[in-house]
């Protein structure tokens, strides 16, 4: 398909687009998993709500519909997902609490083993088992198949046209808010190719938005260019040009999460190196094209490996201490996160850990669960009484849960030299790999599941206005999300095995915690307060995603809508008057856009990670998890159907007469 060209997935009207009341038009901007999920829910409820009304749907995205940008086919097959095959579905199941009918479909693992097998063979991809971490290209094929199935499931009176193009503007033709499909006024979605789509309803199903660099990043980029150095700021690793990173040269890397893992893969195996295994030890054979990566971060350690097992009884459950009712008991209005909410978060995770330990592994405890729970229930994890109970009841330090130690394993540690730092990190990574693969430590799985439940409660509290903007940005979106990612969103275990092999081969070296990078006279200089000495390099890479800020978004559509006042976003200011940057796009509880004047836009819908109150930013969920994104998709899809239904059209005609 040629970029900028439209492709109709079903038979549609020829000639000019219909703009009369006979056919309603909906334009989706964004063709990734979120739009796929919305259309699946649209199809599920169409027979009930559409009433035979003809609908033309247009999906605009410069990347093919289904996978969108992140899950496109055009990326390295060496890049993996950090979720197991069995943990991914885009279909509703009986766990999903929604008004529309449940229409089951295969999760990724079932699809790979069944109808997807032939498709994967044709794409030259090996099938992945349920407990494997598949290549992102496998997910791309799954989403492309789901897209085809969803389009086929739409009723005959609904057509879908895809546009490999970018939407650059939405122009308002007043009056907004007329009955969708009536012949008075419509919105215009302007594409980069110059084509214009007139629409009754517009849905911005936006993914993660690229943003302008911060002042610090712009200064580093400018200084690097002036001095003949290479600076690569935060971004999506699969989209970044890494050709300036030269073989065998030092490269300072700040960031030890998923973005670093992708960078590591693209600068080693993708440059011709390879691995083999001898006596259970993974070895890396350099091609000679690899740079030397000096990696560090605030923590100074890589994200924890993903868990490689399941355990009976360790599944996500509703929170016990951090609940909406508990927050209501703290008082009305805005709560203080650090003093009121964070203690409940810590207690929730502590409870999950010890309940699983005492009930699944009682041989490693000295008290009964009932006795220990009595202390936990009436205290906080930092209380002397509880700390004493842990020391008395849980003899092994490895079985204890101290959130501060989990969060910052190198806090307060100093190393006499880099050799000592290396030994410490290698031991930490090896221990992590053993532990994350051992069901004897299923308390870790209980904490992982509790993190998911806690995240859901915090998201609801933010949407309800129970937290200040400052607390949301500094303590939830930065500190808490960082902890969540460190513990729950780490790489597949194999990637940490490769990291150790690369370290043994001299390709990856560690810099320590609290990494600071500055521009010296001729090179970048990296320092860690925990390790003596410094590292100099011609190149510096920020291996992390940019912090979301819609006011700094580079997307011309979002910038234009904010400038015109058709969209609104908070400019967040801390209590001391300092700027926290831009917040998310504002939407009401029905995902309708809120304008700059505070009014609700009845014909423009917003979903995605850059939108306030939007759930399920990934667009898919774990099976049987009642995914919040699925519930939101169902509600929005049914609202769209009701707006364009025959009954709605008749109501508009009665009103006009």
Automatic annotation (TrEMBL):
Stretches assigned to the FAD-dependent urate hydroxylase HpyO/Asp monooxygenase CreE-like FAD/NAD(P)-binding domain? 27-208
Gene source species: Kribbella alba
State what protein this is by name: FAD/NAD(P)-binding protein
At the top level, the lineage of the source is Bacteria
């Amino acid at each position: 398909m040629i970029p900028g060209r439209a492709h109709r997935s079903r038979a549609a009207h020829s000639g000019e687009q219909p703009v009369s009341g006979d056919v309603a038009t909906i334009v989706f901007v964004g063709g990734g998993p979120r739009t796929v999920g919305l259309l699946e829910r649209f199809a599920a409820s169409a027979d009930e709500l559409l009433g035979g009304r003809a609908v033309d749907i247009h999906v605009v995205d410069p990347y093919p519909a289904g996978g969108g940008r992140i899950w496109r086919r055009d990326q390295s097959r060496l890049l993996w997902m950090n979720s197991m095959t069995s943990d991914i579905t885009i279909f509703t199941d009986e766990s999903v609490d929604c008004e529309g009918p449940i229409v089951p479909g295969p999760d990724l693992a079932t699809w790979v083993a069944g109808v997807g097998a032939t498709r994967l063979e044709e794409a030259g991809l090996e099938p992945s088992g349920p407990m494997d971490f598949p290549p992102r290209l496998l997910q791309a094929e799954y989403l492309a198949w789901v897209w085809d199935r969803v389009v086929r499931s739409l009723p005959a009176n609904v057509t879908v046209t895809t546009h490999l193009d970018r939407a650059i503007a939405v122009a308002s033709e007043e009056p907004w808010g007329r009955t969708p499909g009536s012949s008075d006024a419509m919105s215009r979605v302007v594409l980069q190719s110059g084509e214009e789509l007139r629409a009754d309803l517009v849905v911005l199903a936006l993914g993660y938005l690229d943003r302008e660099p911060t002042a610090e990043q712009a200064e580093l980029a400018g200084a690097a260019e002036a001095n003949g150095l290479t600076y690569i700021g935060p971004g999506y690793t699969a989209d970044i040009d890494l050709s300036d990173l030269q073989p065998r040269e030092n490269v300072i890397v700040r960031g030890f999460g998923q973005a670093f893992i992708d960078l590591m893969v693209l600068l080693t195996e993708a440059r011709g190196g390879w691995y083999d295994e001898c006596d259970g030890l993974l070895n890396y054979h350099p091609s000679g094209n690899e740079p030397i990566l000096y990696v560090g971060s605030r923590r100074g350690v890589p994200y924890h490996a993903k868990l490689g097992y399941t355990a009976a009884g360790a599944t996500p459950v509703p929170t016990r201490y951090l609940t909406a009712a508990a927050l209501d008991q703290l008082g009305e209005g805005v709560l203080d996160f650090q003093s009121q909410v964070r203690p409940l978060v810590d207690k929730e995770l502590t409870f999950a850990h010890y309940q699983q330990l005492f009930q699944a592994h009682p041989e490693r405890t000295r008290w009964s669960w009932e006795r220990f729970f009595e202390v936990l229930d009436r205290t906080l994890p930092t209380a002397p009484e509880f700390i004493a109970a842990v020391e008395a009841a849980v003899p092994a330090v490895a079985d204890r849960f101290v959130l501060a130690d989990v969060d910052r394993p190198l806090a307060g540690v100093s190393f006499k030299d880099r050799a000592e730092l290396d030994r410490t990190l290698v031991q930490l990574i090896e221990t992590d790999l053993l532990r994350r693969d051992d069901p004897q430590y299923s308390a870790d799985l209980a904490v992982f599941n509790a993190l998911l439940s806690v995240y859901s409660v915090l998201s609801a509290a933010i949407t309800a206005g129970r937290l200040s903007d400052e607390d949301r940005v500094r303590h939830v979106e930065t500190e808490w999300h960082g902890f969540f990612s460190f513990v729950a969103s780490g790489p597949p275990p194999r990637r940490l095995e490769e990291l150790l092999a690369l370290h043994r081969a001299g390709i990856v070296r560690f810099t320590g915690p609290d990494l600071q990078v500055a521009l010296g006279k001729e090179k970048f200089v990296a320092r860690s307060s925990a390790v003596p000495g410094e590292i100099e390099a011609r190149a510096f890479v920020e291996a992390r995603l940019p912090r979301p800020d819609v006011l700094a978004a580079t997307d011309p559509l979002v910038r234009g809508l904010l400038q015109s006042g058709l969209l609104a976003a908070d400019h967040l200011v801390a209590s001391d008057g300092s700027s926290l940057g831009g917040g998310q796009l504002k939407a009401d509880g029905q995902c309708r856009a809120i304008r700059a004047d505070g009014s609700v836009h009845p014909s423009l819908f917003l979903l995605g990670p850059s939108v306030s109150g939007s759930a399920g930013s990934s667009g898919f969920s774990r099976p049987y998890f009642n995914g919040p994104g699925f519930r939101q998709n169902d509600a929005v899809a049914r609202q769209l159907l009701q707006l364009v239904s025959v009954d709605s059209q008749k109501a508009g005609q009665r009103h006009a007469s």
